[in-house]
Amino acid sequence: MVVERFLDEMEGDGVGRGNQVNIFRVLKTVLRDAYAKGAMADDPVQGVQEPEYVRRKVVIPSLAYVKKALTAADEYLALEIVMMVGCGLRNGEARAVNVNNVVTDDVYRVHEQIHSNTHKPAKLKHRKAGEFREVPLPRSVRQAIERYEEKHGTTQDGYLLRGPSGYYTEPMERRRVQKLFKNLPVEEDVGMYSFRHYFASNALGHGIPITDVAEWMGHKSIEETYRTYRHLMPGSITRAARILDDGLWEAA
Fewest C-beta atoms under 10 Å: which of 23, 192, 195, 246? Predict the structure, then answer.
């Protein structure tokens, strides 16, 4: 009852469902550990239903909008957007774009991000320190990297984007993003993360297996990819509904 009341209070206080899930899982781990060690006579979370995370609508910009964004953005933000739409990187991973990560002409190795809080290189989300993933490197993205390097050079460690602290930080990105969307034509709910969604849409729309897309995007599990992007897959629920509807009208 105490745990359920706590969950109700979080809901009443307007805590987002994603945060509710994370908080509950930490609490559950602590309480279960106490129960296992004999500190509690009964399992305090038995029968308690985990908060359901309802994902926000995924908004995918058109290719025309992506091109407008690249034209309107400054060189820093344009390269970041290119890494997101072309390689599926998260913002922090794109801020850490590095010429040394170009493994071959068509493979880019992602092994770090510029952390939003520390403003320094950090391990990848859902990965241990030292772990990495390799993603496709489209020719157009590689050429964008090469053009930027030729014009601006790199740091001693190979980073392309940099700032006063040595790294291209989240506050630097945020100022540029605000300016970008102030100048762009309004497109409902499109934000910086929409450029990463574009990568998923482009890949799945061309028949690339969702297992590969999940790996390239660095999702914790394929379930996350499926829940977010299943409507983009050939043979999706939308297409199935249309096919089933045709069968129902024929039966009628």
Answer: 246
Write the single-letter amino acid at 114. I
Domain residue limits, the chain: 1-54, 69-187
- Its pTM stands at 0.74
pLDDT, tens digit, for every residue of 149-170? Answer: 999 999 999 999 999 989 999 9
- Other CB atoms within a 10 A radius of the CB of residue 114 amount to 27
Q: How far is CA 221 from CA 75, 92, 213, 214, 251, in A?
A: 33, 20, 11, 7, 40
What ranges in the chain are assigned the alpha helix state H?
A: 2-12, 17-36, 63-72, 75-87, 91-95, 139-152, 170-183, 194-205, 210-217, 222-229, 237-251
Which tokens hold the place of 30? Answer: 């602590």
Give dist(CA 30, CA 49) in Å, integer. Answer: 16
CA distance 209 to 67: 26
Residues facing residue 98 across a β-bridge = 159
Tokens for 54, please give them: 């309802």
Task: Compute the distance between CA of residue 210 and CA of residue 233 in angstroms, rounded to an integer.
Answer: 8
Query: Is the pLDDT assigned to residue 70 strictly greater than 70?
Result: yes
